[in-house]
Amino acid sequence: MRLANAGFPSNESDQRSLRLWGTAAVRPGSFGYNQRETCVLSDFLEPAVSLRAALIDARAGYQEGATLAEDPQIRTILIGLRDLHEQHIGELTVALTARGAASPDDGSKMTMVHKAILNLRALFSGLNENILPGVIDGEERIIEDYRDAAIDTEDDRVLSDLLTAQCQRLQEEVRRLRQISIND
What we know:
Elements: H1 12-21, H2 46-68, H3 72-98, H4 110-124, H5 132-152, H6 157-183
Helix pairs in contact: 2-3, 2-4, 2-5, 3-6, 5-6
C-alpha cells in the first residue's frame, strides 16, 4: 500500500491499521480524527463499490418501470423498491466516501440495458404482475452481491454491519414480494 501523505505516526500498530482499512480516510478507532489520508483503494472495498453500482442500476430500472407501469400495485412495488435502493445508496455512499472509495453516481452500463428491457416489455405486454418473478430474481442477485461485499469487508466492522443490515432489509422485501406473487 502506498500513502500519498504519510501523516499518521509510523509505529507498527498504525501501519497495520492502514493496511487493514485500505483507504483509511478516517483512522480506525478514532472517528473524530480530522486528518485525512489518500491511500490506494484496497481490494476489500471493490465488492461494495460494485454493489453500489448495481443498486444505482436497479434504482434507475425501477424508476423507469414505475413510469411505464399501468397496474397501480406494480407501480407501488417498483416505487417502493426504488426508494429502498435510494436509501441504501445514500448510506453506502457515505460509508464509501469516508473510506475514500466513492464511485460515480451513474451506475454501470446495465442501467441502459434495464431501461431498454422495461421499455420493450411495456410496449409488447405491459408491466403487470408477470414482472414480479424477474424483479425477485434481480433482487436475489443483489442480495448475493451484499453477502459478498459483507464477507470481503468483515475486517471493517462498521461497513460490514451496514451491508448486513441493508441485506436483511432487502431480504424482508423479497419475502414480501414472494408473498404478493403467490397471492396473485
